[in-house]
Amino acid sequence: MTFPGKARAGLRGGLRLRLVVGFAVVAVVSALTTGALTFREARTGVLQQSQDAVVREFRDSVDARAPGYADRPGQSELDSMVRELAWTHRSQQWRFLATYGDLRAVYGPQDSFDAVSPELQRSVRTRPAAVFQRVRRDGRAYLVVGLPVCYGTSAATAPTPSGLVLYLVVPQKSEQLYVNALVTAIERAMLPALGLAVLLALLVARGVLRPVRALGRAARRMAAGHLDTRLAVSGSDELAGLSRTFNDTAAALEQSVAELRRMEAQARRFAADVSHELRTPLAAMTAVTDVLDERSSRLDDVTGEAVRLVSEETSRLARLVDDLMEISRFDAGAAELALDDIDVAESVRRTLASRGWPDQVTTELPDGPLRARVDPRRLDVVVANLVGNALRHGAPPVTLRLTAGSAQLPEDEWVVITVTDRGPGVPQAALPHIFERFYKASAARTRSESSGLGLAITAENIRLHGGRIRAADRPGGGAVFTVELPRRRGSTAGTTHDRREGGNGA
């Protein structure tokens, strides 16, 4: 379990950013909604109040003058009425229009009265009451009121239109200024609201992120192996519940890991003890089988075959015990490096020659010495295990190639050993497990000479040197194992001893 720095920064910044953005969005939406509702109500109230006042004052002015005119007013009467109305409301910049049939009268310069729409005129003719409409012309707002003059307006008499209609056009400049001021006030109020929301979001994010960061730090300590890590729990909210769950999980994990370590230690001690106890009787058995091998030619066929079988199985058991002893030393951290400055190419030749493989392996070695500071014995084990594995489970030709560095590695710092074969290769499902202990890629290998520890021991020896090993399939068939070893240093994974000797070999 790892927690990269970028992921940690993204967690903190991302959660804080989401909280701040969330609060800001809520604040903006709330401010916009409240502002829109407030603006609508205020605008409606202002315009309604202005409209009612204008209509009332207009009606009062008309009612005060209409009885003084004839039932069928002429052009002069219309002009006189409009002139009196305009004079009475001269300070208000009201514009009046009087109509009676085809007659029209306005005061002052001729006005087209385009604000008086046909719809408004039709409504006035069909309704014996004041009709109003708000219109915009050239970016300005106007209130247009149409008032028919009626007779018989007592409670007992239905109003009867006289045909005389007066129109009033009122500029709503002051109302528009008030509405604009209201919009500006709402816009200005949004900035403090947004700032307050961001401040609250930061405070909330700080409170939320504090336990989250503590949980992240605790998880990283757990990943680093500190299984006794616990969180301080306070409160009863969801984060406190998460902290309690983490503590319970950490306690259960610590107990499980402790039990696993105890069982693993017991298994290691058991394997080491069994291997140690088996070495003495195996030594005696090996000595006896050596004597029997020398005399097997004088025995009958059945007895000789049995002797050879006992000798082979005894040798196999001895190799298995040696491998188990080697693995137990790795597990106990007691594996040591005896470093020496050697010619790696010469060491590879000796490994192949000592096992009788020169005729079975094609080598590609440098012409001159290729020196590196390694453990000669462990290098011999690495080469022998890889070549032996290729000879047993692969198919010829088996090729061993030794180079100083590669296309990705500098020549003066690394030695690269590559072992290839033309066999069936390694199944893709087996590649991730090929260096695990007792793992065999095929069930057919269960009864083979291999113990399933050779590649695991090889990987451990390379790790001690600070190197790397990988396995892959060849594009044309077969397997390829690549070993990369540093030339000038040894790993600190195990105890390292220096040994300086002359010559090129181990």
Q: What would your notes on this structure say?
A:
The protein is of the alpha+beta class and 506 residues long. It folds into three domains: 5-180, no CATH class; 238-315; 335-498, Histidine kinase-like ATPase, C-terminal domain (Heat Shock Protein 90, 2-Layer Sandwich). The protein is 52% helix and 18% strand. The protein is built from nine helices and 13 strands. It has helices at 5-65, 75-88, 118-126, 173-223, 238-295, 301-332, 344-354, 376-393, 454-464; strands at 95-100, 103-106, 131-137, 140-151, 160-171, 336-343, 361-364, 371-374, 398-404, 414-420, 468-473, 479-486, 495-498. The strands form three sheets. The chain has a five-stranded antiparallel beta sheet, with helices on both faces. A five-stranded mixed beta sheet has the order 7-9-10-12-11, with helices on one face. Strand 3 and strand 4 form a beta hairpin. The two termini are 42 Å apart. The relative contact order is 0.07. The model is unreliable at 1-12, 490-495 and 499-506 (pLDDT under 50). InterPro entries: HAMP_dom, HATPase_C_sf, HATPase_dom, His_kinase_dom, HisK_dim/P_dom, HisK_dim/P_sf, Sig_transdc_His_kin-like_C, TCS_sensor_his_kinase.
Give start-end ranges of low-pLDDT stretches.
Answer: 1-12, 490-495, 499-506
Q: Helicity, in percent?
A: 40-55%
Q: Give the H and E element order.
A: HHEEHEEEHHHEHEEHEEHEEE
Structural classification: alpha+beta
What is the overall silhouette?
rod-shaped
Q: From the alpha-carbon coordinates, what is the Rg to the nearest angstrom? A: 51 Å
The total strand number stands at 13
Query: How many structural domains are formed by the residues?
Result: 3
* Biggest sheet descriptor: 5 strands, antiparallel
Taking all residues together, what is the mean pLDDT? Answer: 78
Kindly report the spatial arrangement of strands forming the biggest sheet.
Answer: 2-1-5-4-3
Keywords: Kinase, Membrane, Phosphoprotein, Transferase, Transmembrane, Transmembrane helix, Two-component regulatory system
EC number: 2.7.13.3
GO cellular component, one term: plasma membrane
Enzyme class: transferase
